[in-house]
Design brief:
This protein is an all-alpha fold. The chain is built from eleven helices and no strands. The longest helix has about 40 residues, at about 1-40.
Length: about 300
């Protein structure tokens, strides 16, 4: 009789025990994750100069295979995230196409000639949208790869800079969509008074190229900040080379825009020059922080 009641009790208590084990496993998982995060942001890497690191790699070349394998894992994860984001964007591709076609007058003004043209446009838009959606995760995977070799403060700064990188990229795409395309499309389609019939492939290739490369161009201040933090660039040099910067900006604007007319090039050059001025300010901040860290390292007791 006791066995019977014990069996009934075990059956009644089994769901509660199962739920308790599940909560315990979840708690242990969060505890391990918290310890890993704490160690990730508290451990300092081995202080090794670049020549010493290179000599160590030459003496033990098999050690580099670990880094290559880690890079492969992070790249595969980033690729997986982009594939999922592209699949998600594919489901909203029609809405995205309507949105990008607005500066040209909508999808109704586009005429396809080739049979596979609509499909190729659909895949191109899905890939670009998927990359934009997955960009934070892609940058995060690259950050996880380089983070073990960074100092604790650099890891924190790197993590905080990921949203900034994404915002600058999206800001460049938004500038291309709201400012560049509405100005460039009417001008390009009205040259010499010749009526222009837009094809989906040519229009979307042009629009996505302008949006993508202008988004990349907006990352220039962040690149300058990183180079200044590493000591490769100083704000004084940037100020002295402003004439050369204008020439480079003009070349970049000519590469992004399909024409060399002053209106479209000016629309690109103006924000790029503002970004150059912003880069000088960010370089000054980076140099001050690097100098402060060096002074604290020299004055700290060994």
């Amino acid at each position: 009789m006791r066995k019977f009641f014990r069996t009934i009790l075990n059956i009644v208590l089994f769901p509660f025990r199962l739920i308790g084990r599940m909560f315990k496993a979840i708690g242990n998982g969060f505890s391990k994750l918290a310890r890993k995060i704490k160690g990730f942001f508290s451990e300092e890497p081995e202080d090794t100069t670049l020549p010493d690191a290179f000599a160590k790699t030459v003496q033990n070349p098999t050690g580099i295979l670990e880094h290559i394998n880690a890079l492969r894992i992070h790249l595969f994860r980033a690729l997986g995230g982009m594939i999922l984001a592209t699949a998600l964007a594919f489901t909203f591709a029609q809405t995205i196409l309507d949105l990008i076609a607005k500066p040209a007058g909508g999808l109704g003004v586009l005429i396809a000639i080739d049979v596979t043209e609509p499909l190729s446009v659909l895949m191109r838009i899905s890939l670009l949208a998927g990359f934009s959606i997955a960009l934070p995760y892609i940058i995060f995977e690259l950050y996880l790869f380089v983070a073990p070799g960074l100092t604790r403060q650099s890891r924190i700064n790197g993590l905080l800079s990921i949203p900034v990188v994404v915002l600058f990229f999206l800001g460049g795409m938004a500038f291309a969509y709201f400012v560049m395309l509405p100005t460039a499309i009417p001008f390009l389609t009205s040259i010499l008074g010749i009526k222009t019939q837009l094809r989906p492939s040519t229009y979307f290739n042009f629009a996505t190229n302008v949006m993508f490369f202008l988004g990349l161009a907006f990352e220039f201040p962040i690149l300058i900040y990183i180079l200044a933090s590493l000591g490769f660039i100083t704000p004084t040099k940037l100020k002295e080379q402003w004439r050369l910067a204008i020439v480079i900006i003009a070349v970049v604007a000519a590469l992004i825009t399909p024409t060399v007319d002053p209106v479209n090039m000016g629309l690109i050059m103006a924000p790029l020059f503002v970004l150059y001025l912003l880069s000088i300010g960010l370089a000054s901040i980076a140099v001050r922080r690097r100098t402060k860290r060096e002074l604290e390292t020299e004055t700290s007791p060994s």
